Amino acid sequence: MFELRLVQGNLLKKVIDAIKDLVNEANFDCSSTGFSLQAMDSSHVALVALLLRSEGFEHFRCDRSFSMGMSIANLAKLLKCASPDDIITLKADDGTDTVTFMFESPSQNKISDIEMKLMDIDSDHLGIPEAEYDAIVRMPSSEFANICSSLSSIGDTVTISVSKEGVTFSTKGDIGSGNITCRQNTSTDKPEEATIVEMKVPVVLTFAMKYMTTFTKATSLSNQVTISLSLDMPVVVEYKVAEIGHIRYYLAPKIEEEELETNTQPETAARQETRAETEAEPVPEAAVPLTIMDTSEENGAEAEAKPEVEEVVPLTIMDTKEENGAEDEIVQDSMVKMETDNVADVKPKVEKKPVKAEAVAMEVE
């Protein structure tokens, strides 16, 4: 038996509205700890993770852990039948293929029951490990939504740069480019309006704008948004769901554009230290050809290194290259040398053989 009762029914409507444009269908996992969801978009670029803890509900009962497959679009349509201030109750029995939604008005004058069919969805539950990020930005969710909306009219990508001064959102498109910088501000009287930047090393990452704009659908859930970034890792955009849970969006960076802009991005402290060590210890000229052979492209690498060791090349070729015919060439060269240099030594040996054979024949007679 599964049953939950949420007094703030409008909260569930906002959660579904925040994920319906990203996910078509998903499994809702029910357990004694709470109500959760994890699903990826159709292109497998973004992932959404929802958690509503059991203690956040007025009533929560789950006798055993199970999953309910639902169409997110159909669920959003169903929740439109509820008024903003309605109390929402979900019920599902073991072994059934339906779930019942009950909408109650605060005055109990109106009660609605709607039954929805469940789906059999085959999906893998991904384990998301907890990670330490290079930079964490906390800012007003409404401001983040305005930034994404403004920049989306200029370009298709957004580059997020985090430094000690603050966080910069920039884009570039056919009509031009734009940059919006939010400086760290912790002196405000209202904590929800503060911008806080926690940075270990500078981070510069580029993401698809359309996904960032979709994430801002959760703006109504929380006054603050947390953006966690690390190099070569998906960004995490997190919104708190009142005091009962959270919704997190994961988005992979655009690798191709990051590689193209590597030369223009500011160096991290680790990269600067590596470059300083390389410049402080110049590589000897004799070692350069070996480095080229080991690390450069395979085709043409040996051809560039061979002219520098002319005496070694013939031996290397005879020992390691063409196996068929190598021995024949060596034998032919030695025979030619014997015939030209020691002709006199060869002929006596040839003349003695008939004499020796004649002597043996006389003894036999």
What are the SSEs and their pairings?
Blueprint: E1 2-6, H1 9-19, E2 25-31, E3 34-40, E4 46-53, E5 59-62, E6 66-71, H2 72-79, E7 87-92, E8 98-104, E9 111-117, E10 135-140, H3 141-152, E11 157-163, E12 166-172, E13 177-183, E14 196-199, E15 203-208, H4 209-215, E16 224-229, E17 235-241, E18 245-251, H5 255-260, H6 269-280, H7 288-295, H8 301-305, H9 312-320, H10 326-341, H11 343-364
Antiparallel strand pairs: 1-5, 1-7, 2-3, 2-6, 3-4, 4-18, 7-8, 8-9, 10-14, 10-16, 11-12, 11-15, 12-13, 16-17, 17-18
Helix pairs in contact: 1-2, 3-4
Provide keyphrases for this structure:
365 residues; alpha+beta; 9-stranded antiparallel β-sheet; 5-stranded antiparallel β-sheet; 18 strands; disordered C terminus; Pr_cel_nuc_antig
Radius of gyration over all CA atoms, rounded: 38 Å
Shape estimate: elongated
- Count of helix runs: 11
β-strand number = 18
* Rounded average pLDDT: 77
Unreliable stretches (pLDDT < 50, length at least 5) are 260-271, 274-365
Q: How would you write the strand order of the largest sheet? A: 6-2-3-4-18-17-16-10-14
Structural class: alpha+beta
Quaternary assembly:
single chain
N-to-C CA distance: 119 Å
Report on the biggest sheet: 9 strands, antiparallel
Structure in words:
There is one protein chain. The protein has 365 residues and is of the alpha+beta class. It has helices at 9-19, 72-79, 141-152, 209-215, 255-260, 269-280, 288-295, 301-305, 312-320, 326-341, 343-364, and strands spanning 2-6, 25-31, 34-40, 46-53, 59-62, 66-71, 87-92, 98-104, 111-117, 135-140, 157-163, 166-172, 177-183, 196-199, 203-208, 224-229, 235-241, 245-251. Helix 1 packs antiparallel against helix 2 and helix 3 runs antiparallel to helix 4 (209-215). The radius of gyration is 38 Å and the shape is elongated. Residues 260-271 and 274-365 have low confidence and may be disordered.
